[in-house]
Amino acid sequence: MLGIQDPWVALAIILCLASTLLCVVYAWLNWNRGDEELRTEDVRWAAEEDKVEETL
Amino acid sequence: MPSDVNLLDIVLVLLYVFATAFLGYLGYRGTRTATDYLVAGRKAHPFVMSLSYGATFISTSAIVGFGGVAGMFGLSLLWLTFCNIFIGVFIAFIFLGEPTRRLGHRLDAHTFPELLGRRFESRFVQVFAGLIIALLVPLYGAAVLIGGTEFLSTALGMPYNTALLVLAVLVAAYVFFGGLKGVMYTDALQGVVMFVGMAILVIFTYSSTGGISEGHRQLGELKDLAPASLTSIGHRGWTAMPEFGFGDTRYNLWWIIVSTVVMGVGIGVLAQPQLAVRFMTVRSKRELNRAVGIGGVFILAVIGVAYVTGALSNVFFTTHGPPFQGRIIQTVDADKGHVLLQVMKQDQDGAWMDVVKETNRDGKALPDTTQPVRLDDQGKWLPVMKGTNANGTVREGVIIPAVLDRDNPFVFTEATGNRVAQGRSLSIVYAKGASDQIMPTYISMAMPKWFELVFLLTLLSAAMSTLSSQFHTLGTAAGRDLFESLSGFGSGQRSRRTIYIVRSAIFVGLIVAVALGYYARKEQAFVSFIMRATAIFFGVCAATFLPAFIGGICTRAMTRAAAIASMIAGFLVSAAWLLLVKVPECTVIGLVQDSLLAHKPNWPVVDPLFIALPVSTLTAVLVSAFTRKSSRAHLERCFGTPPHAAPRREPIPELVQP
Q1: What is the pLDDT of residues B112-136, one digit of tens each?
Q2: CB-CB neighbors (< 8 A) of B94 in chain A
Q3: ipTM for the complex shown
Q4: Whole-number Å distance between alpha carbons of B53 and B367
Q5: Does a structural domain hold residue B420?
Q6: Cα B192–B278–B287 angle (5° rounding)?
């Protein structure tokens, strides 16, 4: 395949392309899924994170 | 700066610098804090976010270091690209991202050690993890620093040590005066330039090697030129996997590639402290879902291309590289013009001299020199004699594999039959034996100067953002996980002393990284320092943290005792393997003169992860089965109330953790 004789290297190329396709299809199907309301813990975490960043 | 830089080069580079500065300014003025992202709801475009992630995580280490390794070992490294995409993006973002984010927010954890420490209610876990991160980050920092240094020294014609010093000063200025927070838009621009740069690079590479199939075919044909040092450990060409088996040194390369490169780095990415912290900064699972697609494409385009280009640079150099002259000492394949050349040079009088190399008693290569050719009775050239002088310095001829020039294979012929041939060699020869120099040398020789300079700036700024992320991790490990955790200071008391500790830790870490960068060149070994340093960092992190991390965020069953036991077991087994068994690490560290398993082929090249991760995983499972779980109240704090659970009662006193 594509000038490569060793099937194990050809398989690596196929898997690279297939896994990239998998990532793209997954992102496309779930583009607007997973959004959620902000919780108290998120607000508290963000405020503390800002303090940590200030220290740095 | 070299004299071949013209006005167009300067204009393009200035444009790039201004664009970076402008986007940096926009980013600085705009959304900056966690509160802005998470609470105020200011949105970053998913492309911007994903590309900035990519630019932070992919750096000179991957492009320069691992690209060079592909130049030496071949396309078998594409298995690592597959792992980077499937494990590092798909698995990590989809299965680990959301649990990490949710648990981090529930427990108000802001560093990776703090996440583990709070999940398992153990200060020991936090301090131990912080200590390991503080110890190991400078090693990974050195890998990134060396990648940038190699490119800087090649592009600007600087000595390596000067380039290292320049880069160290730049990094120090960036980290101490510019702050540690990456500016998302600048990072995203770096990501875009990296993406476009790699696209140009791969198109150029395939077009200069005759197309995709033809390029691969030509690369496959070079296999009979692989140096003996590679074929003896199982190299079977640049388009084939190395020879597989166990119990013989001819299988060493398979174990190096699979256990160290593919598994060590490919699996190790899951337990990267910086990645876990990044997961906590996203607003919801939706951002992670979106980042998966762009991240996958970005990794393929940048990492995949770096490996393909690194391997194909061999075809470019054997067809377009600057020619070497010398006499043929062995014909490998007459039809293909594959030969071994004793390299020769003409002196100022036009006489042909043998080029010889010297290696001192410690195995360090000295600069090449020339010597007059020895003649036999008929005036024919004799081979260069290999010899050792009184100081123990070994002197021998420089012999390189070469493809004869098709148009002008011989440049000098004597009546005695002595002939000087002309041919081109493999990438590793042009990189002077250092695989870390293959990519900089290839880009410098093959691409236009403007491309090289823009690519240099991109790599340098990518190195900056990666290094700042690493030193951010180091600083928080030292300040928050070690100092504050051990001193018991709360957030109200932390400021001054913590800042002092954080800055000192970062300064010491930077000094150590620079020292390692200096040492790496001095001790330039056969296999890339960048690759080995990266693999050690990833491997030790995975063996030590992965079972506790995955067990901690995904299950309620993992116990505190199991987390402590698995972390200690993973770290100790990794350290013991590195100090006593793994070659060349154990001999470089010097605790032993040779690997304890030197007489058992293949074991000394097996990566510590291969042994330590199963041990730490097994430890986690077994200890969890026999030790007391966390209290129900704590688990509900971590994971919420399970669906269909009975209403929670007050905790029974004897089950409360001490």
Answers
A1: 999 999 999 999 999 999 999 999 9
A2: 26
A3: 0.93
A4: 42
A5: no
A6: 70
